[in-house]
Amino acid sequence: MPGQTVAVLGTGTMGAPMARNLARADLRVVAWNRTPEKAEALAADGVEVAATPHEAVADADLLITMLADGPTIESVLSGGALAATRDDAAWIQMSTVGAAGAGRLAELAGASGIEFVDAPVLGSAEPAAKGELVILASGPDDARERCAPAFEALGSRTVWLGPAGAGSRLKVMVNAWLMAMTATLAETLALGEKLGVDPEWFFDVTDRGAMAGLYTELNGPAMVARDFPLNFPLALATKDTALALEAAGESASLRVLEATRQQFQRAEDLGLGASDWAAVIRAAAGDDSPASPPQPS
User: What is the pLDDT of residues 41-56, one digit of tens each?
Assistant: First the structure.
């Protein structure tokens, strides 16, 4: 909405470019940071700098938190900042705080009578600087319109997911995937070094990693539906993972790959060896019921 004032608490790696983009969108931005120098650097971009969180939020229509974690946010806001916030303001929580953390912050907002929008983001410093974050928004339907100008300044896409907390739950899920992929990529490149393989060969044949997306598209729906049309037998996945560990040798520290082998082995122990390898979801979900024996045709 034109003329909105946005308070930004937290102007670190993500919060600083976000504050700049809000100011460029002709919103009045008042920023505070625990290390004052980081907020003061934004003055040249048209951002007003507050000495305290209370000062930052006093006239704000929207309060955005982009601090390190949930406990830090609780500490800053429960110290009196929420009490200084206008009754008609909305608090947009954009940090990564986890599912339980989002619940605690929602309770804190409720106790203060402040409308709460849980809206963590996908993207790192570069997308934040370009205003290309993906915003995982969740909260009251009537908050959508008032949040729209800020979200349009900050992101390339906003996905509204339902009641507050849904955004943080999805963020936990996406981050788990990203962290596991990053650790797996590190182990894959380390394995290549052990084997004397040029990493460019790997990047080339996997289309710079795009192959991972293809397998997500192939295996993801099967996992969700618990329906596993055979493309690649799970027992062979166990075998191939073991071969990679064997090739790496005992001196390697491929713990993610070892855990992967164990996960496939657990699924095989459930009688899923002849099923498609997507059936490893059964082991991951803790479904320990043995597979039904194949029926005679």
Answer: 999 999 999 999 999 9
Tell me the C-alpha distance between 243 and 237, whole Å: 10
DSSP 80: I
Q: Provide φ and ψ at 272, rounded to 5°.
A: -100, 10
Three-state DSSP class for residue 241: helix
The whole-angstrom separation of Cα 106 and Cα 163 is 11
Residue with tokens 């951002």: 47
Q: What is the CA radius of gyration of the chain?
A: 24
Q: Which positions are catalytic?
A: 171
Domains of the chain: 5-163 (3.40.50.720), 170-284 (1.10.1040.10)
Strands, E assignment, 222-271: none
How far is residue 92's CA from residue 138's CA, in Å, rounded to a whole number?
Answer: 10
Closest CA to 195 of 242, 239, 247, 241: 247
Predicted TM-score (pTM) of this structure:
0.92
Tokens of 114: 């402040």
150 CB-side CA count, 13 A:
32
Cα–Cα nearest to 114, from 79, 137, 90: 90
Q: Measured between alpha carbons, how far is 246 from 263 in angstroms, rounded to an integer?
A: 17
- The owner of tokens 């194949």 is 294
CA–centroid distance for 36 within its chain:
27
Length of the chain: 297
Annotate 236-269 with b (16+ C-beta within 10 A) or e (fewer).
ebbeebeebbeebeeebebebbbebbebbbbbbe
Per-residue pLDDT tens over the stretch 183-236: 999 999 999 999 999 999 999 999 999 999 999 999 999 999 999 999 999 999
Residue with tokens 């040029």: 198
